[in-house]
Amino acid sequence: MAVVRGEFTSRFGFLMAATGSAVGLGNIWGFPTNAASNGGGAFLFTYLILTFALAYPALMAELIIGRYARANAVTALKTISRGPKSRLLAIAVGFVGILTVSLILSFYAIVSGWMIAFFFDPLARFLGMDGVAQWLTEDAELRNSIFVTLFMILTVFIISAGVRDGIEKWASRMMPSLIIILILLILYVLTLPGAMDGLRVYLVPDFSRVANPQLLVDAMGQAFFSLSLGVGTMLVYGSYISKQENLPTLGGLVALLDVGIAVLAGMLILPAMYVALASGVEIFDESGGLIAGPGLIVSVLPALFNSMDSVGMFVAMAFFLLMTIAALTSSISMLEVPVAYAIENHGVERRNAAITIGSVITVISLILVFNFNPLFDLVVTYTTEYSQPLLGLFFCIFVAWIWRRDDILQEIKQGCPEAEAGFFWKIWPFYVKFICPLAILAVYFQS
Ligand code: TRP
Questions:
Q1: Could you tell me if residue 1 is inside a domain?
Q2: How many CB atoms lie within 10 A of CB 360?
Q3: Would residue 189 count as lying in a domain?
Q4: 387-416, pLDDT tens digit by residue?
Q5: Is 0.85 surpassed by the pTM of this model?
Q6: Is 22 in the pocket of ligand 1 (CB under 6 A)?
Q7: How many distinct structural domains can be found in the chain?
Q8: Residue 48 domain-assigned?
Q9: In whole angstroms, what is the distance from residue 436 CA to residue 160 CA?
Q10: Pocket probe mutation, ligand 1, options 175, 233, 385, 388, max atoms within 8 Å of Cβ
C-alpha cells in the first residue's frame, strides 16, 4: 500500500527537529555531570574530538541512507543491501534498532515524567498546597506512573500529527524557547556566589585524565547517545529531508548545535552545583565525587532553588520546563522510529500506530516503575552501552562495506553538486569504513 510520506518543509524545520532529537536529558544532565566527574575541561576536549571524528561520520551514514531510501530503518537498510545475507542482516539490524529505541523511550519517559512533576512542585508550594508539593517530589510508584503516562500522552499527541504538523511544528516552537531559557538561566546563575568555582571545575582541564580509558569510554558513549545514533532515529529524520538540501552541511550543523547546547548546559549545571554548595547543600557523594545521578536533578538542584526565596520558584519552573522541552523533542524522535515502520510496512494509519505503539511502550515503562530495582539500570545499560554502539557499528558497515559507493556519492551530490571534489568525500568514506568500526569495537571491548 502506497503511503504519502511526510517531508520537512524547510531547512530550519529539519534543523530544529534533528537538534531537538539530539538535545535532551543527555545534554543537560548527562554531559555536565560526565564532565564534572572526568576532569572537567579534559572531558570537554575529548568529547569535542570524538563528536566530530566519530559521531558526526556515523550521523552522516544514517542521514544519507535515510534520504536515499526515503523509508524507515528496516526498509532503508534492505534497499541498500546487495544479496540475501545482507538483506537478512538489514532486517535484523532494523528490528533490533526498533526494539532498542522503544526500550530507551520506556526509561527515558520515566525520567522525563519526574521533570514534569518537579515543574509543578514550586507552583503547588506557591499556592500553599504543601501536601501536593511533597507528593510531587517524593519518589513513589503512583506519582511515577501518573507522570510517565502524562509524558507519553504528550509524545503520542505530537507524533499523531505527523512530520510537518507534529514533529516540525513543535520542534520549531520548543527548541528556540529552550535556547532562550537556557541562556537566561546561565546569566542568572553566574551572578550568584560560588558560581565561578563551578565554572572553573568545568572549564579548567585536568589533562592528566585525557589518557584515562574510562574517560574515552564515557565520552564516546555520551557522543553516541547525544546524537541519537544507532537506532534509526536520525535515519528516519533523514528520510524526511528534501533532496535539495546539502546533507554534509546539515549534519554538521546538527552536530555543532548539539555540542554547543551541551557545552552551554555545563555552564549552567556546574556553577549551579557550586552555588548550592555555597548555600550549604551537600554536592559530593560518599566517595568524594560530585553527585551525578538522579540525586543531582531531583535533590541538589531543588534544594538550591528552595534556598533562593521568591525568585527560586521562577528559576525552578524555568529549569524544569527546560528539561521537559528537551525531553519531549527527543522522545518524539524515538517514537517516530517504530511508528514510521508500522505506517510504511504494515499500512497502519499514523494516529493508530502512534497510540498503539505509545501504549505498549507506556506499559513497559510502568513495568519498569514497579520493578525499578533492578530493571531500570539493566535496561539503561543494555540499551545504551551494548545495543546502541553495536548497532552504530552495523550502520557504518552497511554504508561502507555493503552499499555501492556510486549510489552514496549520487545521493550526496543531490543538494551538494560539488561534493565529489570536496573535503567531506575525501575523508568521510575512509572514516566510516575503518576508523569508526575499529574505534567502536575498541571502546566496546573495553567496557
Ligand atoms: N539524544 C537524546 C539525548 O541526548 C536522546 C535520544 C533521542 C536518543 N533519540 C535517541 C538516544 C535515540 C538514543 C537513541 O537525551
A1: no
A2: 13
A3: yes
A4: 988 999 999 999 999 999 999 999 999 999
A5: yes
A6: yes
A7: 1
A8: yes
A9: 35
A10: 233
